[in-house]
């Protein structure tokens, strides 16, 4: 189908896909195949002019920014790191909720380290969020960029602290880590390409409206 009539939605596998499905269903959009059981990256839906593309969670804002997708669903954490340029952010979908926190080893005295003005080594995937948080707090940090398994950094001596997502807290507990700062609450947002919003206004507006009604119902 013509790129100008097709609506492409970017989602990531896992919790964002799973938690977006009910909102799509409310808009009459059902994905025709289970992505967990398929190697495909593009999925047709029950609406011939709507397709879903599956990308890495951190790539969703980039796809939408450059028009590889017309709209997408992405965590606020990912959006803050991306910066949000070129993206219209009409809705907080109130799904995939968690928080960004600072965590250290159980035996590390974080308060004391901050009080005496120590320079902290902080490992994180969230360098922008961490940089801003510690700058506002007046704490000097050396940021170490990681792409996964942040919890390992304090245990191996790579870092004093991590900045990571926490939901139940079980992962921290299982690794003898404790949460010492709650930086920001996170949920997933609908993002829309600004040019697409003008070109395909009617249909994108419809999706935004139905999603909005779905959130109201869920909360
Ligand atoms: O896994 P991959 O590297 O492909 O990408 P990703 O980790 O960015 O994707 P995914 O699907 O894991 O996460 C997508 C989005 O879901 C994130 O950007 C968040 O906005 C949101 N989300 C909500 C979470 C969590 N809750 C969450 N608990 N993302 C990750 N976690 C991880 C967290 O990083 C930690 O390792 O779960 C662990 C902590 O969980 P608890 O319950 O043990 O505290
Ligand atoms: Mg993950």
Automatic annotation (TrEMBL):
Keyword Thylakoid assigned: no
Domain of life: Bacteria
Reactions that this protein is recorded to catalyse: 1-(5-phospho-beta-D-ribosyl)-ATP + diphosphate = 5-phospho-alpha-D-ribose 1-diphosphate + ATP
Biological pathway: Amino-acid biosynthesis; L-histidine biosynthesis; L-histidine from 5-phospho-alpha-D-ribose 1-diphosphate: step 1/9
Domain named ATP phosphoribosyltransferase catalytic: residues: 56-209
UniProt keyword annotation of ATP-binding present: yes
UniProt main location, coarse: cytoplasm
UniProt family annotation: Belongs to the ATP phosphoribosyltransferase family. Short subfamily.
Quaternary assembly: Heteromultimer composed of HisG and HisZ subunits.
Protein name: ATP phosphoribosyltransferase
Gene field: hisG
């Amino acid at each position: 189908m013509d790129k100008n009539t097709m609506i492409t939605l970017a989602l990531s596998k896992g919790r964002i896909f799973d938690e977006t499905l009910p909102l799509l269903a409310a808009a009459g959009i059902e994905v025709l195949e289970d992505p967990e059981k398929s190697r495909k990256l593009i999925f047709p839906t029950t609406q011939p002019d709507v397709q879903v593309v599956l990308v890495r969670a951190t790539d969703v804002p980039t796809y939408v920014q450059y028009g590889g997708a017309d709209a997408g669903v992405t965590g606020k954490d990912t959006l803050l790191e991306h910066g949000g340029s070129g993206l219209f952010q009409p809705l907080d979908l109130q799904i995939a909720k968690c928080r960004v926190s600072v965590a250290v080893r159980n035996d590390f005295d974080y308060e004391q380290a901050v009080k005496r003005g120590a320079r902290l080594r902080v490992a994180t995937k969230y360098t922008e969020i961490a940089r801003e948080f510690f700058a506002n707090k007046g704490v000097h940090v050396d940021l170490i960029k990681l792409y996964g398994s942040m919890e390992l950094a304090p245990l191996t001596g790579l870092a004093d602290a991590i900045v990571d997502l926490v939901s139940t807290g079980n992962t921290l507990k299982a690794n003898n880590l404790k949460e010492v700062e709650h930086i920001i609450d996170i949920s997933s947002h609908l993002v829309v390409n600004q040019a697409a919003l003008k070109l395909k206004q009617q249909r994108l507006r419809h999706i935004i409206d139905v999603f909005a009604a779905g959130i109201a119902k869920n909360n």
